[in-house]
Amino acid sequence: MTHTLFIDGEAGTTGLEIRERVEGRSDLELILLGDRRRDPEARREALNSADAVILCLPDDAAREAVAMVENPAVRVIDASTAYRVAPGWTYGFPELRPGQREAVAGSTRVSNPGCYPTGFLALVAPLVRAGLIPADGPVSLNAVSGYSGGGKAMIAEFEEGTPDPFRAYGLTLKHKHVPEMTKHAGLSRPVLFSPAVGNYRQGMLVEVPLHLSALPAQPSVEVIHGALVEAYDGARFVEVAPLEETEAMTGLTPEGLNGTNRLRLHVFGDRDGHQARLVALLDNLGKGASGAAVQNLNLVLGLDEGTGLT
Ligand SMILES: NC(=O)C1=CN([C@@H]2O[C@H](COP(=O)(O)OP(=O)(O)OC[C@H]3O[C@@H](n4cnc5c(N)ncnc54)[C@H](OP(=O)(O)O)[C@@H]3O)[C@@H](O)[C@H]2O)C=CC1
Ligand SMILES: CC(=O)N[C@@H](CCC(=O)OP(=O)(O)O)C(=O)O
After folding, report:
1. Which among 104, 206, 244, 276 is least buried, having the fewest CB atoms inside 10 angstroms?
2. Where in the cell (predicted)?
3. Residue 149: CB within 6 Å of ligand 2?
4. Is any atom of ligand 1 closer than 6 Å to the C-beta of 65?
């Protein structure tokens, strides 16, 4: 059976990466608008005739597109920030908690997670659920992304301009991802988020530092690691690096999973067990955006979630 797919924002950074992952699939037929991609009538027609649509647009344009969808049978996956904490939308992170995969599969409104939130939530949500990080506790997040995370405009800035080698940003502590991360982690205190962008194209490291001995449960590195291993048992795209491996590591590059839909979690700890650094590695355009959107597309269409993904 062939399903029709319309990508609104087909020529943008995430849109192009989605096209790369679905072109050549015999179970999908792409509706492409080409030069008519900004024509509201062409978009309205495509948005209402496809079996599924993926919105790869700025937030305001995504809201406009959602308002244009009148056909109740159309499954909408939105890659923007517009609906990530909105009622009536299903958060498109199938591995986030038991039952989430089924919730995505049964939904017609799926919000694709942000790239930083994907790494953050994978590390923190299971630990909050297990009571190892208190739900009302302070949690910090330090992260670095390649410049493709900022879409076409940032790519042009870094590839055609005279960019910084590295740039800390989000300095007002009001990054648009904070509500999404706080809510879906089950935290009550806003996450303290310190993002940065590096002068390389793609890939990210998302890090949560923990003072283990200051946590009420005083968990060891092994207990933290065990909780993550248990949470992702059987997951196809999320894996936890073995402690023997992390103990032997002297460095970690953000580009290690580029081109894949995989997310790898690492638990680094000091020898006396007082501190830990939890580090997620992912491709911001893979499991952080376009790969995740295709995984969600597969689920809403009732297909194997890994179709077309590595
Ligand atoms: N880049 C990343 O790593 C990630 C991005 N996202 C999110 O995905 C969304 C898209 O981001 P990204 O692909 O990076 O952005 P880009 O800037 O690379 O692409 C945006 C696309 O949206 C189209 N567009 C912009 N305004 C309108 C409009 N008013 N009507 C119709 N089309 C419009 C553009 O069209 P045109 O081609 O004509 O210019 C372009 O194709 C954003 O919401 C972003 O936050 C999410 C996770 C990660
Ligand atoms: C390097 C860079 O600028 N990154 C983007 C986030 C990319 C991403 O996660 O996309 P969403 O905004 O859709 O979630 C930023 O911080 O705004």
Report:
1. 244
2. Cytoplasm
3. yes
4. no
Ligand nearest to the CA of 116: 2
For the chain, the average pLDDT equals 97
- Report pLDDT for 272: 80
Instruction: State the DSSP code for 184.
Output: H
CA–CA distance, 249 with 145 (Å, rounded to integer): 21
For the segment 75-116, what is each residue's pLDDT rounded down to a tens digit?
A: 999 999 999 999 999 999 999 999 999 999 999 999 999 999
Q: What percent of the chain has pLDDT over 70?
A: 100
CA–CA separation, 140 and 169 (whole Å)? 15
Give which of 9, 7, 4 is closest to 58, Cα–Cα: 9
Q: Does domain 115-284 have CATH number 3.30.360.10?
A: yes
Domain made up of 3-112+288-300: CATH architecture: 3-Layer(aba) Sandwich (3.40)
Strand order in the sheet with 28-31: 28-31, 3-8, 52-55, 75-78, 109-111, 90-91
pLDDT of residue 270: 85
Region 203-217: what's the mean pLDDT?
A: 97
| 114 pocket-lining for ligand 1 (C-beta < 6 Å) | yes
Q: In the chain, which segments carry CATH 3.40.50.720?
A: 3-112+288-300
How many Å lie between the centroid of ligand 2 and the Cα of residue 13?
12
Q: Tell me what pLDDT residue 1 has.
A: 84
CATH 3.30.360.10 location in the chain: 115-284
**Rounded to an integer, what distance in angstroms lies between the CA atom of residue 91 and that of residue 111?**
5
Helix, strand and coil percent figures for the chain, each rounded to 5: 35, 20, 45
Rounded Cα distance between 73 and 50, Å, is 9
Q: Which ligand is nearest to the CA of 59?
A: 1
ipTM of the complex: 0.96
Mapped onto helix, strand or coil, the DSSP state of residue 146 is: strand
pLDDT in tens, 110-120: 999 999 999 99
Residue 303 DSSP symbol: S
Helix (H, G, I), strand (E, B), or coil: what is residue 240? strand
